[in-house]
Every structure is written in C-alpha cells, then in structure tokens.
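Before relying on records like the one below, remember that each one covers exactly one chain. Contacts with other chains, cofactors or solvent are not represented anywhere in the record.
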Amino acid sequence: MTDRRAVRHRAPAGAADARTLPHRPEVVVVGGGIAGLTAATGLAERGVAVTVVEREDELGGRVSAWTDRLADGSTVSMSRGFHAFFRQYYNLRALLRRADPGLSRLRPVADYPLVDGEGRRDTFRGLPSTPPWNALAFALRSPTFRVRDLLRLNARAAAPLAAVSVPGTYDRLDDVDAATFLERINFPPAARHLAFEVFSRSFFAPPSEMSAAELATMFHLYFLGSSEGLVFDVPDSAYDTALWEPLRAYLAGLGVRFRTGTEAGSVARDGSRWAVDGLAADGVVLAADVSGLRSIVSASPDLADEDWRSRVLGLRIAPPFLVHRLWLDRPVAPDRPAFLATGGLDPLDNISVLDRYEREAATWAAEHGGSVVELHAYACADEVTVLRKQLVGRLHQLYPETAGARIVGELVQWRRDCPLFGVGDFARRPRVRTPFDGVVLAGDGIRIDLPVALMERAAATGWHAANCLLARWGLAGHELTTVPVRGRFAPLRALAALGG
C-alpha cells in the first residue's frame, strides 16, 4: 500500500481465540469464492471451527481455474477469464497475503492499452499516480479528448465524479443510468467508448443498464480516490495454482474443512442453532452467487422475514458473457500487450495473450511454437456460435498475424451468473447483516457502504461477514482498508450537494 490517504476501518475488539470460550462456535460458509474464502479466513484465524461448502469441484468462484482437455487430447488449464488485481484492492490482497505474504505469485502488467473502432489508442503507461493529475493527464493525452472538451464539460453535473461518498453518491445517482449521466456531463462520445465504457462493461452490463452511482464509485476507486495508480497485477500461473490451492492449504492448517462438489440446498433452524442441509452450526455465511443465494433463501422457510426475502429474491443477474480461449500454432507479434481493452468493436471487449504472463500457457506456447489467446465478450445479446465467429474476426482485424494461424484447440465459457448493478438497485440490495442472528451474507452483489467494487467488494463483504459473527461471540475482528470514503476535493463535494 502506497496511498497515505487510504482509510483503515477499525476492527471490533474482543478475545483472540474462540477456543478459550465455553463453547467453540462452528460456522458453515456456503460458497468457496473470494467472499466465502475471506469469511472462512477471518473466522478460522480466530479459532472458529469452519466448514466451507462449495458447489463446484474447485475453489475461487468466478476466479476459479481447472484442468481441461483440447480436442487432440492434450491437457490445458482453463478459467472463466481475465481478472485484474489492482493495487487498491487492499482487502483482497490481505486475503492473498495469508498464503503468499510477499504476493510473489502476482506480477505487474505495465500497461493495458485501449483501442476503438477508429484505431485510436489510449494508454495508462507513465501516468502520474496522484489525483486529480492522473485523470487530467489521461484525458489531455487521449486522442478522443481535447482541451476544448474539458472546457465544455458540465462542471455541476460532473461534480459527483470527484465528490464520491458512500452511500451519498447512491442517493443522488442510483436512479440514473451511466449512459445518461455521461451525456449530462457532456463527455465526448468517442471518449465515452474508449474510457468509461471499457470500465463499465467490466461490470458485465452495458452503460444503458448500469447505475450511474456504480460508475461514479468506480471512477473514485480507480482514479480520483486512490494514489495507487492504474497499474494492476495478474497471477503468474493459473488461478488454482497461484491463489486457491495455497490458500486452501493455509486454511486446512487452521482446521477448515472443505466439502467441494456439494451444493447447499437450504438453511433451517436447529433449536438455538442453524443447520445447512443437516450440517449443524452456530453461524452461517451465505456467500453463494446470486442464483444460488436466491435458491437457498427460497428453500428456507425459517428465513422468514418478508422484506428481507424480497430484497434477496429481487437481486438481478447481468447479461451473459463469453470467454473464448484459443491455442494457436504460431505466436502473436512480440509487441502485443498482455491485455488489450476495446471500445466500439462489438462484440469484443478485450484480448488477453496468456502466454505473456501465465506459466501454463507459456509452457504450452514454448512447446508448440504457438500462443494462447483469450477473447472476452460482455453483456452478450447474440448466441454463442455467432459470437465466436465475430470474436475471431475481431482478433484477425486487430492482430492480423493471427489470420493465418491454425487453431490447435479452443474452449468456451458461456456464463450468466454475475450480479447486475442496475439502475435503482442499491437501496433494495441486501446487506451483510440479516434479520437472523447468526446468518450473514457476503459477495460482490451484497451491499456494503464502502468504496469497493468487483473482487474487492467480494473480499470486503467477506471480512465484514466474519466480523459480524465474531462480534456476536465476543471475538476480535479484522481491520478493513479502503481508498478514502469521500472525494478529496471539498469544493466539488459542495457543488455535488447542490444537485450536480
């Protein structure tokens, strides 16, 4: 952490070890993704007996990886796609440090260019890290943004971007979609595609369906609220090898038990305790994805609070996304970046050259004289066969040397399980605490009034869920860290309060 203005949120005080209590609490954590693993870590480190129940055979949730086979029978690593581990993901990094104290399994990606359909390119290389100079420098050197555009911006409408507070920003902007908000600002259309839309689609929804409050919070997290810069890291090998197998070993050393390949069905009262499919516990962390959470709550009549149930069942899912990984018989050009984001090149959202950073892909590429390339399409409208053809066409357009390459193997992930951060959703989103003593929620779709997003929101809610249960038993919690919880610029905060 290099940002001196990062905020440390104090942990609840209490006893250090549950084994000193008259009764050692037992907790079932439903979900072995980032949120569930974080909650399990927070609880197990305080001596709580933890069992993690995970539907899939592997850990990591939407950041999982597994071994698969190509058509020729060769064994390869596969995942659900690229994830950027930004430096301001303090709570996620705190989790990863448990098994990798120096974060030696992460490696920096020095740059991730953005390119649009007109061939214009932006880059984050060499930007100052201190707000607001980072955002200003990015805008002024962008081919889609000119000084005259800066002068034409609607300062009052734009003020919330530099005056973020949570939940205040949601009170002001959650009923507006991101596309409309950018029009109000008078943000140049080309720059919207090349900058904001690239980031907003990382939330798996088009700007017309995404809350403007989420967009503003995102801008605060990555630009104006943090001095960590826009450089991010990626694991140096597949997610299971680099992240989750080491963390699983760490947690097993703390006594955590894992039941993978097991889908939780319901939660029920068991006297003064709870039971998850008959597995008795003093506490339950529901850290399943949106569909899984809704299914569990629907099947759990003992979770009998109608308003809360309606909030859970009202959670929405983002449109589907496609990950298309290709094993090619020749390398891409040596100057290709490890990651390229696109705007206005539908349906393509980004290209990853995995052999630039992932050990398994690099080994395959070296052995076959080829390359491993991954294509992403978010918020998809077409069906898979059409999208695959279109994505490969975009690859050939942007990386012409691949047009003559033979596809040795290909694997596809077509998923629809990400939460939608839609217009007006925030006020109805369920929080970590529930009306039921001993039951808490965690996940990137769960509300927490901190400036966090995506994987970092999953980790933050996981730590908070653990803290809620630990406080119930008089045990010490875990500190959370975030970028500043309010925008750094007092005049803009005042302007935003006037109705910007």
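Residues 210 and 421 are 6 Å apart (CA to CA).
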